[in-house]
Task: structure prediction
Amino acid sequence: MRLLKLFSVCFTAVAVALFALTLLLRAFVRDTEGPTISMNSDVVEISVGDADDSILAGVTAMDARDGDVTASLVVESLSNLVGDERIANIAAFDSDNHVTKVTRTVRYTDYTSPRFTLTDPFTLPVGSKSTAMTKNLTATDCIDGDITGRISRANAEGSTFNSSVPGYYPVEFSVSNSAGDVESFVASVEVYDSSTVDLPAFALTDALIYLPQGSSFEPLDYLRALSVDSVSYRMYQGVLVRSTLVSQLEREGGDPNTVGSANLYDTSLITINNPVDTSAPGWYEVSYTVTSATGTERSAFLLVRVEE
Result:
């Protein structure tokens, strides 16, 4: 019995010693550091259409215990854009779940800010809901695609929009993409009384255009039609001709000046306010104003974005 007891004590002592030795060895060989991340460049240039994996081009990760862990690399997040650049947060993992993180600058070679499309000028009959002012306005983005749903509007220059009172109200329209790039402009929104006698009406080829910096610009190039004093005119070869005659001229390739002055509208009667400076990038608003024979005045507006 005494021998069995002695054997039990010795066995326990050996077990404790082995356990202690195991803990000691683990302490010495345990991996306490994450992988080492290497990059061939601190900046990577990619297209907006490239997948996030392209951000990892030239990036590798090595771990002292696991060896090559490049396959564990992930792009954890991307900062908002500043110009055409954003910061990528990159992480690598080893088998002990140790993490190493680095940052890398991502430069887009083909990035453009969100762009608007406006099919007709902002104009509403008296009594319309204010939400109707954006019915012809859409927005697209090179990263997110259609972002029309992100368009917002606000009163500008201390003005309060009132759809019950005819007039022209400055309103700011804005849109942003998922990268935090915001594009905005201020436009005149018309509220008109449709019962007004001899109310002139304009039609533009475009209500919002983009121009490269330094390009030429002629406001009359964007005037498509005009209705004034109960007569409708269409622009044909730079001349406003009675709409009823334009189809014939188009068929015959005729000179609009041969139809007689009674069938033409003198474009000098249109007051054009053109603040556009194509040497200076930014937003501009061009106005076209005409007055009927009875004294009813009305304006239409063309938005111009000059791009660098």
